[in-house]
UniProtKB/TrEMBL annotation:
InterPro entries: Rieske_2Fe-2S, Rieske_2Fe-2S_sf, Ring_hydroxy_dOase_asu_C_dom, Rng_hydr_dOase-A. One of its GO terms (molecular function) is dioxygenase activity. This is Aromatic ring-hydroxylating dioxygenase subunit alpha. It comes from Cypionkella sinensis. SUPFAM superfamilies: Bet v1-like, ISP domain. Residues 43-152 form the Rieske domain.
């Protein structure tokens, strides 16, 4: 039996309302398992093709001991490589983005790489004997571009292609013209929080808290907000604005200034939409702007929340002003979510904490937790195994599940 809530989300009549056990948020061994089974084997969004618009433009991306560089070659092709010189492993680029003219030069010993990753030459090549340059190019990383956004995956994993996962909403990405958006002339935003990455995602994966915790969003679209949760790790949230007068300054000004964009499909004209891709990325669209944000885990108790914001290539003065007001609303919302993440995460260290008891309006959070449990079934255990046994226990549970069919 199933039921439908006010957000048109199909929910079982009886379901396990518990979340992940508290120990999974603070265990070093669990975090190591997430590194290997989740983050390094699942797609991560790095940026947009217009972040690397010209040959020699590059983006850096670090994740849990792995380092990537995404670069546009002289032939116009965007490629992804491990950011390690093949000589001694130094970074061939350092930073979040930059530009190199014609070649990458390793700052350690001066090995030179072409923009397609091939080795042009080693410093003092005669000292290496018969060095075969063809065998020492930068190591490639699996990459996919979806409507302009660049995704990489350090190691092969269980997810299909990004295009397949986001197929149900490919038309929306096309409708927003995301392939042609341009980065804002400002650094991408980032902040570090003293929390486990799951606590950030737990807050973002449900709209039950919007009326209480996000007064601006409630003022903007709270009456129409709904969550949809699809198979394959895709979550979608939609809020339609303009159906009622606003009270808060930023929202009131936004509604007064925002213009209908005739180039947008009708169903996107007055909506803010959020597309969440398992495990840690969200794309947020308004009629004036596009952004993505994600959680980059650093340690069991530290997470870097970061993202990039983009605009349409042609925008009127009113559209630009509305984009700024949308940014103000989103900035306040992000600060509110960050505080909620901190409170939720620290509560799990209390002896009084007895776990989550989820509302039907938090069923999306349950779906996210289920995806984690499927990958790492040790998370189903209410009590933590000894740290040294967590990986082995997880492997044992996977083996048992496979044997049972």
């Amino acid at each position: 039996m199933t039921k439908h809530d006010a957000n048109s989300l199909t929910i079982p009549n009886d379901w396990d309302r518990r979340g992940l056990p508290a120990w999974t948020y603070h265990s070093e061994a669990m975090f190591a398992l997430e590194r290997d089974k989740l983050f390094l084997t699942h797609w991560q969004v790095v940026g947009h093709v217009n972040d690397v618009a010209d040959p020699g433009d590059w983006l850096g991306f670090d994740l849990l001991g792995e380092r990537a560089v995404v670069m546009r070659g002289q032939d116009g092709v965007v490629r992804a490589f491990h950011n390690l010189c093949r000589h001694r492993g130094a970074r061939v680029v350092d930073g979040e983005k930059g530009h190199c003219k014609g070649a990458l030069v390793c700052p350690f010993h001066g090995w030179v790489y072409n923009l397609d990753g091939s080795l042009r030459g080693a410093a003092q090549p005669s000292s290496f004997g018969g060095l075969d340059r063809a065998q020492f190019g930068l190591k490639p990383i699996e990459m996919e571009i979806f409507h302009g956004f660049i995704f990489i995956r350090f190691f092969a994993g269980p997810q299909p292609s990004v295009a397949e996962m986001l197929a149900p909403y490919s038309a929306d990405f096309a409708g927003y013209r995301s392939e042609g958006v341009l980065p804002l002339d400002m650094p991408h935003w980032a902040t570090e929080l003293p929390v486990n990455w799951k606590s950030v995602r737990d807050v973002d994966n449900e709209g039950y808290h919007v009326p209480m915790a996000h007064p601006a969003l409630q003022d903007l679209y709270g009456r129409t907000y709904r969550d949809l949760h699809l198979d394959g790790g895709l979550n979608v949230s939609i809020g339609t604005f303009g159906d009622a007068p606003a009270r808060r300054w930023s929202v009131k000004q936004y509604l007064a200034i925002a213009e209908r964009q005739d180039w947008l499909p009708e169903h996107l004209q007055t909506t803010w939409t959020y597309y969440g891709l398992f495990p840690n990325a969200v794309f947020a669209f308004t009629p004036e702007s596009v952004q993505f944000y994600q959680e980059i885990p650093i340690s069991p108790g530290k997470t870097r929340v970061t993202g990039r914001i983009y605009r349409q290539p042609v925008e009127s003065r009113r559209m630009k002003a509305a984009r700024y007001l949308a940014y103000r609303i989103d900035r306040d919302t992000s600060a509110e979510d960050q505080q909620l993440s901190i409170w939720s995460n620290e509560s799990m260290l209390s002896t009084a904490f007895e776990g989550f008891h989820l509302s039907d309006l938090e069923y999306g959070l349950k779906r996210h937790h289920d995806s984690l449990r499927d990958l790492m079934p040790v998370m189903r255990l209410p009590t933590a195994p000894p740290e040294a046994e967590i990986a082995a226990r997880n492997a044992e549970l996977i083996s048992q599940s496979t044997a049972q069919g």
